[in-house]
Task: inverse folding
């Protein structure tokens, strides 16, 4: 073989998927097509999210309603603005649409960069993508079914733990009684017991039942008190109307605004989903050989401390929520360390391999 025909270039272990080089114009055309397809996905999914927007809002508010009812408060959130309900509906529908369409957007991005990857890089990316999606789903489920109920229970319990102020009657000889006396009309005297009477001979014998279970077939106008919630319920026009508890021995009553609650849940979900990507990040670090897993194992105690710091930063300022998130983060760190050891490959003695 002539010397000028010898190929001195070392053969590569990995081959590209597409050996034909695309021109710059072809790259731009492919990028434009992928961007259009990636944009259509969130638009379609957002329309579907808006169709079921009210049901999604109800699903998000359900844990709060259950906890409020357990503590004896109306299972409702409040709307303090004219456009608040509509803005919350739009926000939830659009965000849900973006979340559902995110795999489609990632798929279009993957198809754009696929032709420039080697076989080993392509296989690794195909492994990382479903692993990341699975951890995101686990993060959402953990937030909704574990972290959110625990956080709301603690916060509502703490809110209702303030003792109610003693406002029974007015001391006639005190400063408050003297000040309020200035607002009394001449010739009259305020008597807290003026409207009450101990003579019950002329009082109608009307009794309201105290029940632990709602009547199966209430009649029109029937009223009762539901225990242990302490709620006053009346059956009117074929439906049972529930009123707030008759009395509540607490200085603070939780009146939670819908927009503030949805923002709280959204931020909490975002933080938990990001935290659940820890094993994915450690897998990428191990695959790229940036850090040896033995080094991370050596500093395990510091990593556990960082997990508790992240638990405090990603949750409300209460110790219960911090621990509830920090302990799973610790478990995710250990899982990520195992995955990192599997994906880590030491460079060969003769040089780095791709």
Result:
């Amino acid at each position: 073989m002539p010397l000028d025909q010898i190929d001195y270039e070392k053969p590569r272990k990995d081959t590209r998927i597409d050996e034909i080089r695309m021109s710059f114009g072809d790259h731009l055309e492919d990028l434009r097509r992928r961007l259009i397809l990636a944009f259509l996905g969130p638009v379609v999914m957002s329309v579907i999210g808006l169709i079921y927007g009210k049901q999604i809002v109800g699903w998000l508010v359900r844990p709060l309603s259950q906890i409020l009812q357990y503590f004896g408060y109306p299972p409702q959130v409040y709307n303090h603005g004219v456009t608040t309900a509509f803005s919350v509906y739009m926000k939830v529908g659009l965000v849900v649409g973006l979340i559902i369409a995110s795999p489609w957007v990632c798929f279009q991005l993957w198809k754009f960069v696929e032709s420039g990857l080697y076989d080993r890089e392509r296989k690794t990316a195909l492994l990382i993508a479903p692993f990341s999606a699975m951890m995101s789903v686990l993060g959402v489920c953990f937030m909704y079914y574990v972290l959110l109920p625990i956080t709301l229970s603690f916060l509502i319990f703490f809110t209702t733990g303030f003792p109610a102020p003693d406002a029974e009657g007015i001391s006639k000889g005190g400063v408050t009684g003297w000040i309020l006396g200035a607002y009394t009309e001449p010739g009259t005297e305020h008597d807290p017991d003026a409207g009450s009477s101990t003579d019950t001979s002329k009082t109608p014998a009307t009794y309201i039942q105290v029940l632990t279970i709602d009547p199966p077939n209430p009649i029109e106008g029937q009223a009762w008190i539901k225990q242990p919630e302490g709620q006053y319920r009346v059956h009117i026009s074929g439906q049972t109307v529930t009123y707030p508890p008759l009395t509540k021995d607490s200085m603070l009553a939780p009146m939670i605004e819908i927009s503030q609650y949805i923002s709280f849940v959204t931020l909490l979900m975002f933080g938990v989903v990001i935290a659940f990507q820890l094993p994915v990040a450690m897998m990428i670090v191990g695959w790229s050989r940036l850090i040896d897993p033995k080094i991370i194992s050596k500093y395990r105690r510091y990593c556990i401390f960082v997990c508790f710091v992240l638990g405090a930063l990603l949750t409300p300022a209460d110790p219960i929520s911090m621990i509830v998130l920090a302990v799973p983060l610790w478990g995710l760190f250990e899982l990520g360390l195992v995955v990192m050891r599997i994906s880590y490959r030491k460079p060969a003695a003769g040089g780095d391999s791709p």
